[in-house]
Description:
This protein has 157 residues and is mainly beta.
Amino acid sequence: MNKVNLFLLTTFIFQTLFPSSALxxxxxxxxxxxxxINEAPATVSVLAGYANIHNASDKSITLLTVSSPNFSKIxxxxxxxxxxxxxxxxxxxxxxxxxxxxxxxxxxxxxxLFDPDKPLRAGDTATLNFSFSDGNNxxxxxxxxxxxxxxxxxxxx
Length: 157
Ligand SMILES: [Cu+2]
């Protein structure tokens, strides 16, 4: 059985056992699209993750924490240009305004993913858990991709 079938089977079993769970990112007021992780050399222990987070409700919802079984720690960062240097500011939380989409994208807001449990290559997926101020949690699978547009090597912490 290949990896994709195993994932679908696992998802099917999980949803059969826990039909009201938030595993599906279709449910709830907040939904995700284009969740991806920038592929990096295996020697790099900090990766960047991106997604679009949409709040369909008529009130602001705040992203409180992001965690993952695949990383030791995840922070929300914003890249800020100071002169010709890009630095990253840690965000304690991230508000998603009512009826709005926050886009995490290279050079701007991103997830900083620390210490992957295994080398992540393009095509792999990692699990991300998001918890929100309205009490909802969402678990999504982010795909590791090689998108060449942004060079992160000039970032510093
Ligand atoms: Cu960062």
